Amino acid sequence: MSELKRQSPVQFKVSPRKTEVRDNWTVALEYDEEGQGPWLVDLAHKTRWDLQDSKVGEQRPCDLEVPAAPGSCTFANDTLVNRMNRTQTAIYHLGAAAPAMPDFSGYTDVTESTVFLALFGPKAFLIAEKLSALDFLDPAKQAPFLLQGPFCHVPCQIVTLEKAADGSGGFLLTCSRGYGDSLIHAILEAGSALGLRPAGENRFSDWIQGVQG
After folding, report:
1. Which helix (H) or strand (E) holds 40?
2. Any idea where the domains of the chain sit in the sequence?
3. Which residue in 147, 148, 145, 177 sits closest to 161, CA to CA?
4. 124, 68 in Cβ contact below 8 A?
5. Strand runs (DSSP E) across 67-189, as ranges?
6. Residue 102: is it exposed, middle or buried by C-beta count within 10 angstroms (0-12/13-18/19+)?
């Protein structure tokens, strides 16, 4: 029996120049003419967990603290832990490989049930402002921080991962898988005049390394 092929919920109209197969996902590493930014990267293959427990603040996913306040994030070792509410936390694994899910009933792997995108680079937030009223550059908040609300009229989790004084930086976005095609279309259309291009995982990895220092 052949192995199950995993399929991203979003498809760009251009084909990647370089790919690799990883855990049954075909991962786009590079595209031709990625330009100077901003960039949109499909991260469907990156593992995401949902953690729910009445004492979620006492858990330590990947040996990282769960932030005390909703909207706060912990980011280290390519792992992002986002406190959503009193009992729920979202965990994104941004490196090449994710650890095994802990043997605890509160964890659910939501990787294949959700869209996962990164939008970053110069003018990234100008594109976001066209598609949502959420404040991605809230001066009262230090990146990374979590926002929950509508983006393109779709309920989303959004993490501002980096924000610079010149307005550059970027964010991660996840939502239900069924919105994938319409979401990609809206984002690319909103960013077309600002030079938005699809990019591969290599571009994303360089950005993440820079954000983590």
Report:
1. strand 39-42
2. 17-213
3. 145
4. no
5. 73-76, 79-83, 88-93, 107-109, 114-121, 145-151, 154-163, 169-176
6. middle
pLDDT tens for residues 61-96?
A: 999 999 999 999 999 999 999 999 999 999 999 998
**CATH no. of 17-213:** 3.30.1360.120
Q: For residues 68 and 83, what is the distance between their CA atoms, to the nearest angstrom? A: 7
Is 98 exposed, middle or buried (CB count within 10 Å of its CB: 0-12, 13-18, 19+)? Answer: buried
Please state whether 117 falls in left (phi above 0), alpha (psi between -120 and 50) or beta.
beta
Distance of CA 67 to the CA centre of its chain: 18
Residue-wise pLDDT for 8-57, tens only, equals 999 999 999 999 999 999 999 999 999 999 999 999 999 999 999 999 99
- Which residues, in sequence order, are bridge partners of residue 171? 119, 160
In the three-class reduction of DSSP (H, G, I as helix; E, B as strand; rest coil), residue 193 is classed as helix
H or E stretch at 136 = none
The residues with which 175 forms a beta bridge, in sequence order, are 115
pTM for the complete prediction?
0.95
